[in-house]
Design brief:
Elements: H1 17-41, H2 47-93, H3 111-114, H4 117-122
Helix pairs in contact: 1-2
Keywords: Membrane, Transmembrane, Transmembrane helix
């Protein structure tokens, strides 16, 4: 799609260093939290005693998933920008093509439109 808005040219890399650091930091914090909750919950005798550790592990796993989703969405966005840039360059480079369709003035009508179904069945 060609728009009047100009985007910066897409970079060669899918992610910037800051995005990788953010996702890596969230992932490492989540992994440490998951291991810590696993270790802490393993010493509890009943499930009731270990509920807090399970909640902590779920939060830690959510951090890991959040980091992965962040990287995926940023990568998909950069890929879409690169695709749009390539399409715009092709549209600028290729000459316009004129397409002409001819529609006859009188089209033959199908038989079903000329007579009711009951009259066609009697013939």
């Amino acid at each position: 799609m060609v728009t009047g808005r100009r985007r910066p040219a897409p970079s060669e890399e899918l992610w910037t260093r800051g995005e990788v650091r953010l996702a890596g930091g969230l992932g490492v914090i989540g992994a440490i939290g998951l291991v810590f909750c696993w270790w802490g919950g393993s010493g509890e005798r009943t499930f009731e005693d270990g509920k807090d550790w399970v909640v902590g592990a779920v939060v830690a796993a959510a951090l890991i998933i959040l980091a992965a989703v962040h990287l995926l969405l940023r990568g998909f966005r950069r890929l879409r920008e690169a695709k749009d840039d390539a399409v715009n360059r092709l549209l600028i480079a290729l000459p316009p093509v004129a397409v002409h369709f001819e529609i006859p003035a009188e089209r033959p009508r199908p038989v079903a439109e000329l007579a009711p179904v009951s009259e066609v069945a009697l013939r």
